[in-house]
Design a protein that fits this description.
5-stranded parallel beta sheet, NADH dehydrogenase, DsrEFH-like, membrane, transmembrane, DsrE2-like
């Protein structure tokens, strides 16, 4: 009685076109590494801030929140539109004013605050407090935030509306960003703020 040891089609024997076990194991390892790499950032929290104000007192909140969140490991995007663009503009950011009219916490009554030149006076008062308290300037906060990886986006429509030159913004600011991009960023963020 003879035993036939030849393999028939359908057996587990490798064919010329099929990969070997070692090749399959290597491919599985590659795929596992790629999956680990692709999902490694899944634990990173995201914060999206929309900044619309350009006064001295309103430039601080988005910058402080952005830099603090970045320090805690958040991926942060600040989309600036309308007067919020002024904090990203190299020249305008150095001359942000503090409006005294309609600000109930200002130590100046509205009747006095409405006088010509009062915004300049209240701005100087705030700048003195900033200096006396050794608080970072807008420029320092912006540069620190950029160094920490915060992405500052300047609204393209507002750049055109205000007739700003894209070259006048701080290095590192992303220009030409539209509302659709901002909305997509907010949709993906864990925290969304309008300041």
């Amino acid at each position: 009685m003879s035993t036939d040891t030849s393999e028939t089609p359908g057996d587990d024997a490798p064919t010329e076109d099929a990969p070997s076990r070692a090749e399959l194991a290597a491919r599985v390892d590659e795929l596992e590494d790629a999956l680990a790499e692709a999902t490694a950032d899944d634990d990173t929290k995201k914060m999206s801030i929309i900044a619309t104000k350009g006064t001295l007192d309103m430039a601080y909140p988005p910058l402080i929140l952005a830099s603090t969140a970045a320090a805690f490991g958040y991926e942060v995007t600040v989309f600036t539109t309308f007067w919020g663009l002024d904090m990203l503009h190299e020249e305008r950011s150095k001359n942000l004013q503090l409006s005294s009219v309609g600000n109930p916490n200002m130590p100046v009554p509205n009747a006095v605050a409405a006088l010509p030149g009062m915004d300049r006076v209240t701005t100087k008062m705030m700048e003195k407090r900033i200096t006396d308290n050794d608080t970072a300037t807008i420029e320092e906060l912006l540069e620190t935030s950029l160094e920490m990886g915060v992405e500052f986006q300047a609204c393209q429509m507002t750049i055109e509306l205000m007739d700003y030159d894209e070259d006048d913004f701080y290095d590192g600011v992303t220009t030409g960003v539209g509302a659709a991009t901002a909305i997509q960023d907010m949709a993906e963020a864990d925290i969304q703020l309008l300041v």
